[in-house]
């Protein structure tokens, strides 16, 4: 299940970037519609790539793993 969800998220993250490329190639990037459409597509793409990042981080393939949460071990109390 993991590779399928990861591949779908990557695909859905790349599609809006292709749309931004099309807006750039067609020359409508400088219009108000093109600007807002590009911002919306960047937001959608960012959400899907954030999901990809979280999936990879949870699996331990990217960044810090859950085992090393960064919390120092509790010190023993002295009497």
Description:
- There is one protein chain.
- With 79 residues, the protein is mainly α.
- The protein has one domain (2-58).
- It is built from two helices and no strands.
- The protein has helices at residues 2-26, 32-58.
- Helix 1 (2-26) runs antiparallel to helix 2.
- It starts with a helix and ends in a 21-residue tail after the last helix.
Distance between the termini: 52 Å
Major sheet summary line: none
The helicity comes to: 55-70%
Output mean pLDDT. 84
Q: How many individual β-strands?
A: 0
As residue ranges, the low-confidence spans are none
Give helix and strand order, one letter per element, not per position: HH
Kindly provide the radius of gyration, computed on alpha-carbon positions and rounded to a whole number of angstroms. Answer: 20 Å
Q: How many structural domains does the protein architecture include?
A: 1
Count the DSSP helices: 2
Summarize the structure.
66% of the residues lie in helices and 0% in strands.
Topology:
Elements: H1 2-26, H2 32-58
Helix pairs in contact: 1-2
Q: What labels would you give this structure?
A:
79 residues; mainly alpha; 2 helices
